[in-house]
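Our preliminary data section would be incomplete without showing what the modeling component actually yields. Below, a chain of 230 amino acids is followed by its predicted structure, encoded as tokens that our downstream tools consume directly.
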Amino acid sequence: MPSYFVTGTDTDAGKTLASSGLLALARRQGQTTLGLKPIASGCESTAEGLRNIDALTLQAQSVPSVPYDDINPFAFAPPIAPHLAARYAGADLSLDRLCHTLGGSLELPRDLILVEGAGGYRVPLNDQEDLAGLATRLQLPVILVVGLKLGCLNHALLTAEALKADGVTCAGWIGNLVDPGFAEDETLYRDNLDHLKARLPGPCLGIIPRLDGSDHRALADQAADHLSLP
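Predicted structure:
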């Protein structure tokens, strides 16, 4: 079954919006889906335990449904870098532990499985390892989400260089307009997109415009209208 690691050029680049949009698109086509968020910080305390809105969004697009703990096995309350959140919680994060934890989920019979990272590609996992190592360990092609704003060209190209250095395949990239002002000059905006299309490895899987609203299911469906599957 096709499985991909979804990373971003930065925190809040739009990984969850892009991931949920791809899952929603796959569901429209009658495919079974699974979205995983192995590590999430910034979780809220609920009667069921710590819950993260990004992980809940992916869970809502996962069909057949799976328990929350399978979607997000490592949940932390502070909205800080995952390795620090884990340290403060007294938890041990390592690539070995992550790969072992995710092994069963990645073997589920699904037409599309997305493993969403945390923050940017090189976000630390501990003092020696980066979360990027999950893609190399599990041999997952990467879908890169580019947060479209001033500075995105540098962020995107540096991330692409990191993917190449790690020997990771880029299955495609998605642009997500995080700053509406970035698109005010339509000609300049198109020039930026053309530069990304010319320089980034892998095909462009879509450009998500600025979407408004708080209903994450509706946002996923709207994002799906602008995407194609890898």
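The chain has a mean pLDDT of 96. The first helix runs from residue 15 to 28. Preliminary results of this kind motivate Aim 1 of the renewal.
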